[in-house]
Task: inverse folding
């Protein structure tokens, strides 16, 4: 079969990203031809500023080398501008007469710099700041001339001005507004920026409107005249007043344009054979000029071109950073605020720090930071996720306290970190390694950095820091994760969409999920299979057949795999209570199976280390005979209920905390969870059982029981939120069961209660568990129903021969 | 043909799973994929020696249980951007019996499949 022909007009970042995505998911589907008006292969336009500033060379910023096009069989026409599209015959024609037929056409014509329509705008020495040739012209001018004027005090203008200053020119920035970067900054932040740039030697002429560019004796521009009569001498004028989507070609072909080529959510124009991506596009009335949304568009367009057709582009929230070395600013969303919004502001002019966040209906809607911008990524996340911030509103301005708990001071500035500072403690990745990978391998996204360096790929606690390094290295408008995060690379669907489909369709087998949601891989991957297995198990207790091959080895073998491939065994001790008979049995087992190490765990259990997999069933048989069941210390499951001694012995105890702990453990043991789940019961507010860092903690008081939720003592220590106070043990049991079931039904797989509570908000949980008595009772009923099927001891089953092959090694001797 | 060793019944291999075969000198993981193909790989991840036999099998890949490297069962190669290669062994299935070639096939297959990292 003959391949379909795909022609792309425009050889820039958005277009080429679309081609790369397409080659990844459907290699060989199209015969691809690319026309580029410039003479260069695809390069990183964002990094023109560092090239101008002399920090990088044009070679450094090439994204796809000429060899890359050849290796991928792409016909590349450089220096050829397409002048005409014949939509009837489906042919494009370049100005030099080169023609190409298409089945699908992709327009990625980008944007043009806007030149002020003033007299003298066409003089020699007047240029824009858009492509490599502009940068070359500026570099040339800087070696021959002294005085530069940049018209436009926005992002691009300031970067141009900074670059020219670095090149030794005397630079004035002319701006019509009353402060710089008014589309990204509010006035106080802009003043700090201006002050900082002035110390670097830049001059500013604000609220000046350009009237005319004056021709000198040599014929070159020599001055800029303003409407108020002032004038400033200039040997070079750079116009950076904005960009306009380049729609000329599309308009000439009769494709509907409205300040951009109008596209739908699959990036198709009004002619469905013709797609458009990038700065030339108007999507839902918005034209984007930053790289992150353009890459999101590219992904969706590629997906549709590959005939998957499941992706949708639904618009982006964007954030900005200025790429001027030594200056850190960040802004996102509605940072000005208006009616119905509230602003929280922190300002410390002498240290050059300014932070403002704008809140509406308890949600972050905008942020503007100058100086310390390390929390930018976090604010951006809160903004995109629409997180309810009412619970941490008071500390919001001071950032995510836990960022960098694994060995970094919380306030440490990522830019100031030395190259050998460790960013990812799990995988031993230093800042220098990450920066090198980003630069050498030309990485843009967190996923790419994770894949290449492993930074933040294990526990994830350093994700914010890695994002900060990424943002700082590529200059800020790096490709942040799309607002809708797919469950894994096998699907476009998010956790919530998968959970909803399993419930509503209903889907009762993994194959049904793969088919209905059009999974991209034949049988998933090591990320999605355990998640789906859990979702199905939690939603259809008693119906869904648990799939051992979709479980991580710990849950398949019912023990914790250790680095040497042996396993550890933790028998359950209800509420942490034990007795001489049980201890004797554990001692006997440890001796019989030559257990090399015995340790008491943080959850008040005994851990037997270094057990060979083959020995597990026999060991469990002995433990089972002594009355033990699995402690599930290996599972995304109810782990332990930690207790203090309580009223029975302690002179401070107010209630029977140990007895209540045993009851809670008997209620909840065996249940599978999105992640590990820990309980504790303390007998008085001295809280010896550390109940306030547990997923569900009970603190007994004289008049009843305080119930606490969402605590975590692990990677990020988080103290629980108080859910409510109840009066009886029966109520504790019901609230505990209901809360557990809500978590089981709604949290994402591998999401602990702490981030879950932060994501959905404590108010939501209170609404479901405390305020809605009928809902609470129903949740509790569903929990108890599921427990019928879950409370089967996996150790006893295996001691009796279930899954015997899993534990047997085949031995072949010569 | 004497170097082909009978190791297990095909039905004893769990679909999308593995069995460990311990020879005198080497521990081999024998995998069966969802499409019932059989592969044999040395049971040691090229990263830090993790037991690949204990990983989750998807397509013709296995994900190492220790640090999530993905290894191609056919070639032993780690999936990019990770770099490394595990030794592979030839297998065949005949009349419900799985055979593995250890001695002669070993060096040849290993050299071939891991050539790029030699």
Result:
């Amino acid at each position: 079969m003959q391949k379909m022909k795909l022609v792309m007009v425009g050889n820039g970042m958005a277009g080429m990203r679309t081609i790369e995505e397409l080659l990844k998911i459907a290699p060989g589907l199209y015969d691809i031809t690319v026309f580029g008006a410039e003479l260069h292969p695809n390069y990183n336009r964002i990094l023109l500023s560092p090239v101008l500033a002399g920090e990088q060379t044009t070679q450094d910023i090439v994204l796809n080398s000429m060899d890359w096009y050849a290796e991928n069989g792409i016909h590349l026409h450089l220096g050829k501008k397409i002048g005409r599209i014949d939509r009837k015959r489906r042919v494009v024609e370049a100005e030099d007469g080169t023609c190409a037929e298409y089945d699908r056409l992709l327009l990625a014509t980008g944007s043009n710099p806007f030149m002020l329509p003033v007299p003298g705008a066409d003089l020699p020495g007047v240029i824009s700041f858009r492509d490599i040739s502009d940068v070359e012209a500026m570099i040339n001018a800087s070696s021959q001339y002294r005085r530069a004027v940049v018209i436009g005090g926005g992002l691009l203008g300031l970067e141009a001005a900074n670059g020219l200053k670095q090149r030794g020119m005397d630079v004035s920035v002319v701006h019509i507004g009353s402060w710089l970067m008014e589309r990204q900054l509010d006035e106080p932040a802009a003043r700090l920026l201006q002050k900082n740039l002035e110390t670097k030697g830049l001059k500013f002429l604000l609220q000046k409107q350009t009237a005319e560019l004056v021709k000198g004796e040599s014929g070159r521009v020599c001055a800029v005249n303003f409407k108020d009569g002032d004038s400033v001498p200039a040997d070079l004028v750079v116009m950076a007043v904005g960009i306009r989507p380049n729609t000329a070609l599309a308009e000439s072909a009769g494709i509907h344009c409205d300040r951009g080529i109008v596209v739908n959510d699959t990036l198709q124009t009004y002619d469905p054979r013709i797609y458009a991506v990038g700065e030339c596009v108007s999507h839902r009335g918005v034209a984007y000029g930053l790289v992150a949304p353009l890459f999101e568009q590219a992904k969706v367009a590629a997906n549709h071109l590959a005939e998957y057709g499941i992706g949708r582009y639904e618009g982006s929230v964007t954030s900005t950073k200025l790429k001027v070395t030594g200056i850190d600013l960040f802004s996102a969303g509605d940072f000005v605020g208006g009616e119905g919004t509230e602003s929280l502001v922190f300002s410390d002019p002498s240290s050059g720090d300014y932070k403002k966040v704008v809140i509406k209906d308890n949600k972050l809607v905008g942020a503007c930071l100058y100086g310390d911008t390390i929390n930018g990524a976090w604010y951006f996340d809160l903004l995109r996720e629409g997180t309810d911030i009412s619970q941490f509103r008071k500390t919001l301005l001071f950032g995510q306290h836990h960022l960098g708990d694994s060995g970094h001071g919380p306030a440490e500035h990522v830019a100031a970190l030395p190259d050998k500072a460790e960013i990812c403690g799990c995988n031993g990745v230093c800042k220098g390694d990450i920066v090198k990978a980003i630069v050498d391998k030309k990485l843009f996204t967190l996923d790419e950095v994770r894949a290449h360096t492993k930074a933040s790929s294990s526990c994830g606690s350093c994700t914010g820091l890695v994002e900060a390094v990424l943002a700082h290295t590529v200059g800020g408008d790096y490709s942040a994760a799309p607002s809708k995060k797919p469950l894994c690379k096998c699907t476009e669907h998010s956790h919530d969409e998968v959970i909803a489909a399993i419930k509503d369709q209903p889907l009762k087998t993994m194959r049904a999920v793969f088919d209905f949601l059009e999974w991209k891989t034949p049988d998933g991957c090591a990320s999605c299979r355990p998640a789906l297995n859990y979702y199905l198990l939690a939603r259809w207790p008693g119906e869904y057949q648990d799939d051992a091959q979709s479980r991580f080895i710990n849950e398949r073998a019912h023990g914790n795999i250790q680095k040497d491939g042996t396993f550890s065994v933790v028998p359950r001790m209800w509420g942490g209570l034990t007795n001489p008979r049980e201890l004797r049995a554990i001692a006997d087992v440890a001796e019989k199976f030559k257990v090399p190490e015995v340790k008491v765990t943080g959850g008040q259990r005994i851990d037997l280390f270094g057990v060979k997999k083959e020995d597990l069933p026999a060991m469990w048989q002995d433990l089972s005979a002594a009355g033990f069941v699995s402690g599930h210390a290996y599972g995304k499951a109810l782990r332990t209920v930690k207790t203090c001694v309580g009223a029975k012995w302690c002179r401070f105890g107010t209630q029977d905390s140990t007895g209540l702990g045993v009851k809670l453990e008997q209620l909840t043991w065996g249940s599978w969870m999105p992640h590990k789940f820990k309980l504790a019961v303390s007998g008085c507010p001295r809280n010896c059982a550390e109940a306030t860092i547990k997923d569900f903690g009970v603190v007994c008081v004289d008049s009843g029981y305080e119930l606490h939720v969402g605590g975590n003592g692990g990677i990020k220590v988080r103290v629980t939120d108080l859910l409510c106070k109840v009066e009886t043990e029966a109520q504790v049991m019901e609230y505990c069961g209901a809360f557990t079931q809500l978590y089981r039904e709604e949290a994402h797989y591998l999401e602990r209660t702490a981030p879950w509570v932060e994501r959905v908000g404590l108010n939501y949980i209170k609404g479901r568990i405390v305020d809605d008595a009928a809902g609470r009772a129903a949740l509790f009923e569903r929990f108890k129903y599921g427990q019928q099927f879950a409370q089967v001891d996996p150790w006893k089953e295996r001691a009796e021969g279930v899954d015997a092959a899993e534990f047997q090694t085949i031995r072949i001797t010569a | 043909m004497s170097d082909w060793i009978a190791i297990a019944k095909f039905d004893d291999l769990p679909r999308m799973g593995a069995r460990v075969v311990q020879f005198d000198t080497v521990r081999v993981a024998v995998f069966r994929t969802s499409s019932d193909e059989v592969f044999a790989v040395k049971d040691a991840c090229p990263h830090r020696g993790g037991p690949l036999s204990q990983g989750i099998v998807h397509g013709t890949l296995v994900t190492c249980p220790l640090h999530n490297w993905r290894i191609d069962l056919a070639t032993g190669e780690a999936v990019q951007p990770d770099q490394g290669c595990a030794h592979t062994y030839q297998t065949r299935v005949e009349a419900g019996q799985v055979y593995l070639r250890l001695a002669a096939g070993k060096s040849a297959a290993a050299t071939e499949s891991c050539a790029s990292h030699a």
User: Anything to note?
Assistant: Residues 456 and 463 of chain A are 5 Å apart (CA to CA). The longest strand of chain A covers residues 353-360.
